[in-house]
Amino acid sequence: MTGPVDNRQQRQLYRQAFTENAAPKLLIDPKDGAIVDANPAAQAFYGYRLEEFYALTIHDINTASLSEVQAEMARAQAEERRYFLFSHRVRSGQVHDVEVFSGPLDIDGYRYLYSIIHDITELRRHQRELEVYRDLFRSVPVGLYRNTPGPEGRFLHVNPAMVSIFEAESAEELLATPVRDLYIDPDQREEVSDLIEREGRVNGFELAMQSLRGRELRVSLSVRASRDEQGNRVFDGFVEDITARRRSEAERDRMRELLHGRVLAEKARAEADADRRTFLAAVSHDLRTPLNAVKGFTDLLAETDLDDRQRHYIGLAQSGTERLLALIETLLELSRVEEGRVQLQQRCFDLHAAVFEQARFLQELAAEAGLSLSIRIEDAVPRWVEGDPVRLGQVIHNLLSNAIQFTERGWIDLHVDWESPQTAAVTVRDTGCGIRPEDRARLFKAFSQGQAAFRRTPGTGLGLKICRELVRLLGGEIELESEVGYGSTFRFTAVLPPRTEPGAQEDLKPPGAPAEGARSEAKDLPHVRRKEARPEPESAAPIDQVETGPTPLRVLVAEDEPANALLIQTQLELLGCQVRLAENGREAFEQWQADVPELVLLDVQMPEMDGPETARAIRDAESVRGCSRTPIAALTAHAVDAIRQTCLDAGCDAYLTKPVDRTALERLLRRVGKAGGDDPSCG
What's this model's pTM, rounded to 2 decimal places? Predict the structure, then answer.
């Protein structure tokens, strides 16, 4: 073929969808990669006339090797994969980073590949630079900030170190605090501001300040005057907390002969332990928000075309992200346990199924480590009992995970017995390295991992502390027997009164249902009516999209943080949805009024109107206008029950915690898409 197709009706549709499109488009013969058509936008982008394109193949513009391009084309046909990242060379010789959306197109009985090309060269460069700056801003151990000058100055931006230094509950609390309130002497704020205005900058200016909790600080301040994007005068600077340094120097001079520094170290450690409890809840939200973007875009990047070294690097990044997320969850769980906020959810459940479910999750991990994992449940153990299967499963999961982690070779045995009329006894044995007597008691303390062999293994040292507290809530005790070189045995009891098998009418959750702080699942969603449409052939739907109905699911996303907005948009579009974005709750409500979507995702913390306020506004409008209920899901970095309940009370149907789990998102879309029908009338 040397030109566009002929058939009049196909040519008219083809011209509308291909030739007249504003984005560069190419039509390619998959057999040899020949370019058989290019729309005007492609001719302008690549610098070739249409006649010149006919003499080219895709290999002439793609910088990848011939074998790589052919392999990708074959995979695109076999897997119906639609999205690629390539580098294309235009006529001038310049190389552009491009994203390519490609798919099959049948014309006159012949299957071609069509490609939509977007130039993302500048976007990729800006993204890389932005990530570098964001990482620096988030990770440096000194406080970075921008504020307005003068006696009434306010903070405009602060990094996590600033929040920590001034003991704020959150960045929002620090942003709402006048700068002068951090000075022990408020008049000194005006003096410092005037000095910066006169000199243009100050370096290493040492002064006394105070935290939001009233603790006196000694800080080193370096600031320069500049202007923001609107030309307004601002101060950019960094704060180093030198309180401990100055205190140590003073006490060293006063007590050097008597204490030799040991008291100072113990005091610093005690202060760190005390500050930790206050710090845990405050940083959870601020960690989850950027972590959502890091995890999401890393997962998306892993699905693109990567070489082996890049895939290895991405794998390391994903592993680190998962470990960081697990650490956040563990710290929050420890905080809840220590504050007595964990309450058991008593209900009837299948004890045998709960035990096997936890073991099944870890059998593959044990096998990968070359270990055998056996499960034994005695006949005397009743099947149906009353208790909290989530917390019981959490203890079993943690003990089995530890056994796998600290066992290099051999086996692990999970044994469940019945100790008394109402008490189960669970034993986890392994053939690991064993634990020294002096380390055993310390293992059940927070942030302790025992001997050096344990400390070389990744972990926080919090798991057994949490296990002990949960076992006590379950009415039992946990014990440890171990011998160095011969493995360890952890045994715990739990009060689980036997019950008769529940009837079919009882509403029973499966073992492993979410607990407080766990990543939540969507509850039952309201009926969604969908427009009827002619179904596409099965071969035209990519395998990684969620089948939600004959037409793409229309989703409205309200998210004020640009990176997270781009992430959720990309995830939804890859799952086959049509996505509209709103930057705040008020804009989301206005878009909902103009065109009712089939699903609304609302970030909880937004300007103008937050997520719960927006959900209430939509529910009120639905009641007044008499239209069908729109499914609404809350999307938040808060992993606490209070926020979850607030969202549900406001009218949300589901609650997704950042970083967003893709499986939970797919499940949500399927639940919405299964309720087919006509569009709701909200006129």
Answer: 0.38
